[in-house]
Amino acid sequence: MNELAQAIPYFGSRNPRVARGIVLALMLLAPLLAGMIGNTWIRVLDAALLYVMLALGLNLVVGFAGLLDLGYIAFYAVGAYTWGFLASPHMGVHLPFWIVLPAGAGLAAMAGILLGFPVLRLRGDYLAIVTLGFGEIVRIFMGNLNVTNGPQGINMLDSLNIFGWDVSRNIQITESFQINALTSFYYVFLLFVVGSVIVMRRLQISRIGRGWAAIRDDELAAKAIGINTRNMKLLAFAMGATFGGVSGGLFGSFQGFVSPESFTLLESIAVLTMVVFGGMGNLGGVIVGAVALSLLPEVLRYIALPIQQAIFGKVLLDPEVLRMLLLSLAMIFMMLIRPAGLLPANARYSREELVKGLKEKQA
Amino acid sequence: MSIVLLEAKNISKRFGGIQALSDVSLTIRKGEVYGLIGPNGAGKTTFFNVLTGAYTPDQGEFVFAGTELPTGKPHLVVERGIARTFQNIRLFREMTALENVMAGHHIRTDSSLFGILLQNRHTREEERLITERAYELLRYVGIERFADTLSRNLSYGDQRRLEIARALATEPQLLALDEPAAGMNATETAQLRDLIETIRHDGVTVLLIEHDVKLVMGLCDRVAVLDFGKKIAEDVPAVVQKNQAVIEAYLGGGHHAH
Amino acid sequence: MQPWLHAYAALGVDAKSLILPRRGSSIPARLYLLAPSDALVLYNLLTQVTPTLNTMETLLQQIVNGLVVGSVYALVALGYTMVYGILGLINFAHGDVLMVGALVALQVAAYLQNTWPGLGTTAILLISLGAAVPVCMLMGYTIERAAYRRLRNAPRLAPLITAIGMSFLLQTLAMIIWGRAYHSFPPLFPTAPLQPIEGVFITPVQVTILVASAVLMVALVLLVNKTSLGRAMRATAENHRVASLMGVDTNKIISTTFIIGSGLAAVAGVMISSNYGVAHYSMGFMPGLKAFTAAVLGGIGNLGGAMVGGIVLGLVESIGAGYIEQLSFGLLNSSYQDIFAFVILGIVLIFRPTGLLGERVSDRA
Predict the structure, then answer these.
(1) Comparing C-alpha atoms, which of A288, A355, A330 is closest to residue A11?
(2) C87, C144, C172: best mutation site toward chain A, by most A Cβ within 10 Å?
(3) At what angle do helices A39-59 and A265-278 cross, to 10 degrees?
(4) For A2-362, which CATH class?
(5) How far apart are CA C110 and CA C104, in angstroms?
């Protein structure tokens, strides 16, 4: 928990304790507040948390290791389809989540290595194109194969059932008070996000995290200090993909169906924009970026549509167009004005308390 | 002083139409400072790159501490105990000075992925240890007060020192320095010279490529001279200085003097 | 195989989903996007043109299709390769410039047909081209000026990410202006296909595409190799600083490169949409990606390479799509056609990153 709080340096700088309290309270109360406006908004928050997980995973590849991956959504798809295969009437298999999620994560990691092997030697911009191609190939296959049920995808996916607790059921506490299923999903997802952040922070401050940062900053120098760049890059692809796979599984269980439409290039780009917008390499930044860019389109939808109706008498820009407009502009302007992102990375790769201890000993 | 640490046997390397190295053989003994000099384009840096595995030689082999060195695999060469610096400094820009050196410890650490994720005792212990060691190394090269400074914000001379500290973190037997004095003023060069002396004194053999002839002649136990990819002399500085071929290589043949 | 299906696949449009009813639905899925009359025409084309061909003719037909598609790829690839040669940037938005070219031309052509019904089709074609090309040139210039130029010394991922953003911005703007519908492109060419060999068809549009792209490519090569502008471009590609020391206004040269590339893309856009009869806000994406593949295949930064790469890719794709079913033992069908480009791209980058003709470092523009 402390690690998550540390990951939010922006709030922490003035009055860390109060800031942490506010963040924590917001995190915990968000679905209840959102629920007051309407259940749709809880759903929006749930989706936002999935995006946060995706952005964290992509950040590992792009922000930590400096490998621009434009096909990241493919791993999300692998996770979601794994859920579809192993927990739905499609194959007639209904395995529990503690098998399906790791299976999705493992398959995604394998896909990550599969993609990683051939592209290891490529420079940044070529890498981007090839990963984009990979994402498209995965989507084309999922949209055409019989086993994935083509463009229609797989329906009636099992919901998340955690040892007997079906998350998709409303919990009736008293006659008049119930905990909405969407709210339950929120807290489950929040747990996963917290877990991801802890994993990310541990990776970052470790020989592995420093190895990735070294490759990102100067690959030749990284080799010259003995880093096996091939293995480290493969590890980055595999780890990043694992996060994608887990989020994909959660997405499948949450949405109840999977189809190729959810895994287009636009989604890859959207996740990349979140990473870039918040600040590559900075966990706090990435979280802020993901939350902001997944909530903003919804807020815009809420605000802009009635305004358009009132002024023009019809809807000129539909929500999807607004979202694309927002994402593309965010991307361009962020790069032009603030290339380091909203919260520029002040990412550390060493333990603060250890360094401080040494300096005090010195003095 | 007579144990051979590194033996280069008939190393040749060709780039397109240019024979960058032809048949270069030389021997570096344990504990010495060995200088490699020569006019621009003589093949010094190419020799470095072949030695450290950045390039594969077309012909020839290196024997290091009794066994053959792998070629074309930089990380394995480092693991065997050869570290290098670069002519144009290459640091990890987004990391602090301390973290640069900590990254240098990479191959001498072994925390596994799961150890790191679980933060087991071994991982925590190792992390504490390399933080300490990295700090020690910063002090060794004299820049510990900049431990928390991003490497890109260090002064030029300090960046050179940091690069040496990072190389030392790999615990090398042979430290290969590519023009470490380039761009330094007289004071900085003198400090660098002291540092190299200390490193040698502490048991690390040093291979030095340098343009600053005075530094080389004052510091090196033995010197080899390359010209057009060929070794034209190898001896103690006093002898090499008087070698006719060397004088010609530096003064005549249309080369620029250094 | 029906050439029309490939045609749509090349556009990034799944022709089957356009025409054939989806499983479980009695209405053709996306037909409502087209005006009913156009849909009918399209439907007839797709269902009635099923010539029974023997293998040799099939192969020849695939070659003809491949050459046509390939020469369009080549035209677009030139834009990628010129920009990459000079700036080292993959201009992701290049494919979308093509799309804007097609839609502007379509808009103008439709306007002309409505306003002066007596106007000849050649005149309409030339006027709409004359509108599309300058619009795209201006757009290419603006994109470079407003975005890429400020990022010339930025960290390496920044320009690339901006270019991706630019690509999506153009698509979004096109979506706002022209909507999501597949617009049918007015038929400006005679539709009766020629039959140079019994059983092998080539339409007048296709002939025009082959001739026009050949002319444009020759013109570009002459421009780069024989004029002082071309020399300045080559010098800039070689080394910006040295070129500017030698008195070359490198900013101007870079702008010019974007302008020329965008002009070619506009022409390619018009070609594609007159060949397939439709234009669409995301039609630039696939051809753009494939043209980039072509540029890499030929050796990026190399003009000749872009042309060779385009043609080779077109042929591989077209012939491959014809035989993919046999090649994969019936596992895959022609809806997988798009993966050829990606697979080729992957293979080239891994085994021969300098491309077929090599990255000509000393003579690139």
Answers:
(1) A288
(2) C172
(3) 80
(4) mainly alpha
(5) 10
Residue C28 has what pLDDT? 34
At A345 the pLDDT is 60
Q: Do C345 and A130 touch (CB under 8 A)?
A: yes
Q: Cβ contact (<8 Å) for A335 and C165?
A: yes
- Give the residues across from B4 on adjacent strands: B29
The contacts of residue C95 (CB under 8 Å, 6+ apart) are: C76, C167, C265, C284, C285, C286, C287, C288, C289, C291, C292
Say whether C179 sits in a helix, a strand or coil.
coil
CATH value at residue B127: 3.40.50.300
CA A92 to chain CA centroid, Å, is 30
Nearest Cβ partner for A225 among B93, B104, B144: B104
* Neighbors of chain C with 3 or more C-beta pairs under 8 Å: A
CA nearest to A107, candidates A127, A136, A83: A83
Instruction: For residue A226, give the nearest of B93, B135, B170 by CB distance.
Output: B170
**Phi, psi of B11, rounded to the nearest 5 degrees:** -80, 130
The pLDDT assigned to B28 comes to 94
Distance of CA A162 to the CA centre of its chain: 22
CA distances to B154, C116, C137, C269 from C128, in Å? 59, 14, 14, 12
Q: Which residues in chain B have their CB less than 8 angstroms from residue A282's CB?
A: none
Between C3 and C102, whose confidence is greater?
C102
Confidence of residue C302 (pLDDT cuts 50, 70, 90): confident
- Distance CA(A214)–CA(B95), nearest Å, equals 8
H/E element, C160: helix C157-178
- Predicted pLDDT at A1: 43
| B6 and B23 co-located in one domain | yes
Residue C177 contacts A, CB cutoff 8 Å = no
Question: Do B1 and B43 share a domain, yes or no?
Answer: yes
- With bands split at pLDDT 50, 70 and 90, how would you rate the model's confidence at C54? low
Kindly report the number of other CB atoms within 10 A of residue B222's CB atom. Answer: 18
Other CB atoms within a 10 A radius of the CB of residue C117 amount to 7
Nearest residue of A to residue C167 by CA position? A328
Residue B25 belongs to domain spanning: 1-81+174-258
Q: Please give, rounded to a whole number of angstroms, the shortest distance from the CA of B238 to a CA of chain A.
A: 33
Mark the ranges of chain A whose per-residue pLDDT is less than 70: 1-16, 344-346, 363
**Angstroms from C230 CA to nearest CA on chain A:** 26
In angstroms, what separates the C-alpha of A263 from chain B's closest C-alpha?
A: 29
List the single residue in A with minimal CA-CA distance to C88. Answer: A125
Query: What is the tens place of the pLDDT at every residue in B133-190?
Result: 999 999 999 999 999 999 999 999 999 999 999 999 999 999 999 999 888 888 889 9
C65-351: CATH class: mainly alpha
Same domain, B138 and B99: yes
Q: What's the pLDDT at B61?
A: 92
CB contact under 8 A, B90 and A224: yes
A65 CA to centre of own chain: 16
Give the separation between CA B32 and CA B30, rounded to whole angstroms.
6
Q: Give the integer Cα–Cα distance in Å for C315 and C321.
A: 10
Q: Which residues of B touch A349 (CB under 8 A)?
A: 95-96, 99, 102-103
- Are residues B224 and B117 both part of a single domain? no
DSSP string, B83-145: EE--SS----TTSBHHHHHHHHTGGG----HHHHHHT-HHHHHHHHHHHHHHHHHHHHHT-GG
How much is the ipTM here?
A: 0.91
A216-219: Cβ within 8 A, 24+ apart = A216/A64, A216/A65, A216/A66, A216/B94, A217/A66, A217/B91, A217/B92, A217/B93, A217/B94, A217/B95, A218/B90, A218/B91, A218/B92, A218/B93
The distance of A353 to chain C (nearest Cα, Å) reads 31
The total of structural domains in chain B comes to 2
